[in-house]
């Protein structure tokens, strides 16, 4: 049995990654402190509760399973919270990742797949965002992810750690079989908030700013289906297992949608209007984040198949209605 240590395997993206790893013949070992994850989402391999900053616990888990690689998803990931509580982002995302990397190196586990973000790029007017775009994050979340990228490079040089870094654009959708899906408390992401508003599970959606320099005044994002996203991770893992070199890939489709376009599509897919109001801009938000790279396609052979807006919203809606581990 080939074990992969999946930090954050009880979270939204990590749980989908565990399902994809299992389907690809690996055994995902979830390591999660359940601060933002859900034990019910751990369905595809063993669960080990633990914190990234707990070196002794990490050493124990590495010794028990002897994983051949790490997929590191565990992180705090709310831009708004990162603006008001930056210390938590530096401590958990950077300090925790450093502890994990040191434990992996000590255990001789030198293949590492890392969940980074296009938030590391920051604001770039009229620039195509590819992997060589300078990284000037606008918030502590993006800054913390950029710092971990640097740590991975340093440990590559010093200890032979090989990494595939994925810079995600906006992840949406859910497992079409609705075994796992998106469930955050508090929820801050656009698609689940839109669906909650449609369903009357919360008040109207607030659009954060309509005065951006975009065609309809609302922010533009590049949405990628979570299943396509985790497929890229399995390809990245196989890349490392084949003995290839460290890489950085954007994961986005290259197509941007505004907040209003997402709302309109959700209304079309569900057949219900989106109750909404207009509010001020949210601090830390960039006007437009759209990938301008096809490296993951050309180098890894990544072929997203569910990342059109309609499929993402339809899958998210199916999961939303199933309400599996909702509380
Ligand atoms: N938005 C609203 N109202 C809401 C929530 C969101 O108008 O109630 C808008 C945001 O202002 C933004 C867009 O919808 O323009 C998408 O917002 P999300 O919070 O869903 O996503 P973000 O783009 O802020 O951030 C997400 C992840 C980050 C990641 C980032 C990369 O949360 O982890 O994508 O773009 F880094």
Walk me through what this model shows.
The structure is a single chain. By secondary structure, the chain is of the alpha/beta class. The protein has two domains: 3-171 and 223-251, NAD(P)-binding Rossmann-like Domain (Rossmann fold), CATH 3.40.50.720; 190-221 and 254-322, Alpha-Beta Complex (UDP-galactose 4-epimerase, domain 1). It has helices at 12-23, 55-65, 79-84, 86-106, 140-159, 190-198, 226-241, 259-270, 295-300, 309-322, and strands spanning 3-7, 27-32, 47-49, 69-72, 111-117, 162-168, 170-172, 205-208, 220-221, 223-225, 247-251, 257-258, 276-279, 288-289. The strands form four sheets. It has a seven-stranded parallel sheet, sandwiched between helices. The longest helix is centred in the first third of the chain and has 21 residues, at 86-106. The mean pLDDT is 95. Uridine-5'-diphosphate-4-deoxy-4-fluoro-alpha-D-galactose binds at residues 77, 79, 117-119, 169-170, 188-190, 193, 205-208, 219, 221, 259, 282, 285, 289.
Level-1 CATH class name of the largest domain:
Alpha Beta
Distance between the termini: 34 Å
CATH superfamily of the largest domain: NAD(P)-binding Rossmann-like Domain
* Percent range for β-strand residues: 15-25%
Query: Reading side by side through the largest sheet, how are the strands ordered?
Result: 3-2-1-4-5-6-11
Largest sheet: 7 strands, parallel
Arithmetic mean of pLDDT: 95
Q: Report the radius of gyration as a whole number of Å.
A: 19 Å
Could you name the CATH topology of the largest domain? Rossmann fold
